[in-house]
Write a structure and sequence with these properties.
A hairpin with a 5-residue loop joins strand 7 and strand 8. By secondary structure, this protein is an alpha+beta fold. The chain is 47% helix and 11% strand. The protein folds into two domains: 102 residues, 2-Layer Sandwich (Phosphorylase Kinase, domain 1), CATH 3.30.200; 218 residues, Aminoglycoside phosphotransferase (APH), C-terminal lobe (Aminoglycoside 3'-phosphotransferase, Chain: A, domain 2, Alpha-Beta Complex). Helix 4 runs antiparallel to helix 7 and helix 4 runs parallel beside helix 8. The strands form three sheets. It has a five-stranded antiparallel sheet with strand order 1-2-3-5-4, covered by helices on one side. The chain is built from eleven helices and nine strands.
Length: 340
């Protein structure tokens, strides 16, 4: 899902890119940084240097304001490094043994450039679905161990205490409250399942976080959400993401392809409760994204790019949630066929 507009490049950003080139010893910048359209959280640019091509990610200030965010990035990039032994991963480059560089209170991450792009939903074919299912299976079978891996996030009730400063979003949110409370109730109902049978995984391996090159080789990017997750939830959530169309309707053929391909590599038995738990865990991720964007609206000026993006994403999320909810019976039915 692309941004409505490319991120604005300030002169201070260009200075920081040049400082990063010096720090990482990646050569002198030769080209104007080009915005990478598609990021919904951070500002990302591609640029050429005298040595090669690189990508730089300016971390969102809302993320950088969180306690221990630097430790979180150290750990998640360590996870990416470990899992790069099992599947195709793009890691952040290291500066003084850290996966980030800080200058004038701004934090950036630098990556080697890969000539690839995320697939639009309508471009996803069974081949792509199968490749990601096999990759997820390998990640789960690797069963890596990383100290202080981010735990399963408990459901947050902060969402229900936010007052949106945007009239239309506020109206849409109030109308959706009973449905959102219903989802939270079911997340709590299945919390016992979701806290068990844990593996370390990407936790957000949807189409926007996978680049494909001209030869249909893939690279999994953006590992900042990596951590512990219930294995069945990870399978169900990732299968749904790779089966959605632009209107949030699920292509059951793609769902079936994903689940069967995962089973080929990593046979599992799954019961109805585990499917429902995985689905509501998946919906919990949408509640988390809604919460982030409502706070984005609340904490930014109306004229800012962040405010506009918050409005767009909050509205889109509130529209998507009821469409997704109505499809649970079909997801259960198709999943049970694949896991028996």
């Amino acid at each position: 899902m692309p941004c409505l507009m490319p991120p604005i490049l300030l002169n201070s950003n260009v200075i920081l890119i040049d400082k990063a080139c010096e720090a990482y010893q990646i050569g002198r910048r030769l080209s104007e940084p080009i915005p990478c359209v598609g990021g919904l959280l951070h500002r990302v640019y591609q640029f050429d240097t005298s040595k090669c091509q690189f990508v730089i990610k300016f971390l969102n200030p809302a993320i950088c304001s969180r306690p221990s965010y630097l430790d979180r990035y150290r750990i998640t990039e360590c996870i990416a490094g470990e899992l790069s032994k099992h599947t195709s991963v793009i890691n952040a480059m290291l500066y003084q043994n850290n996966p980030f560089f800080i200058f004038n209170d701004e934090t950036v991450m630098v990556f080697s450039y890969v000539k690839g792009k995320p697939l639009m939903q309508k471009k996803i074919r069974p081949y792509h679905v199968k490749q990601i299912a096999h990759a997820l299976s390998k990640i789960h079978q690797a069963n890596i161990s990383v100290d202080n891996a981010p735990p399963v996030e408990p459901p947050s009730e902060t969402l229900f205490k936010i007052t949106s400063a945007h009239f239309e979003i506020s109206k849409q949110f109030q109308h959706s409250l009973p449905m959102l409370e219903f989802i939270l109730k079911n997340i709590l109902k299945y919390e016992g399942i979701l806290k068990n049978n844990l593996v370390i995984s990407h936790r957000d391996c949807d189409p926007k976080n996978v680049l494909w090159d001209a030869d249909d080789h893939f690279y999994i990017i953006d590992w900042e959400s990596a951590g512990l997750i219930n294995k069945k939830k990870d399978v169900i959530a990732t299968a749904i993401y790779w089966s959605l169309d632009d209107s949030f309707k699920i292509n059951l053929d793609h769902l079936s392809v994903f689940l069967k391909a995962y089973q080929e590599e990593n046979p599992n038995v799954i019961c109805r409760d585990e499917i429902e738990a995985g689905f509501y865990g998946f919906m919990g991720d949408w509640l988390g994204w809604l919460e982030f964007n409502l706070l984005r609206i609340q904490n930014n000026l109306e004229s800012s790019e962040e405010y506009s993006l918050g409005v767009t994403e909050a509205s889109k999320t509130l529209s998507a949630i009821p469409v997704l909810l109505t499809q649970l019976p079909e997801i259960i039915s198709e999943s049970l066929k694949c896991f028996t």
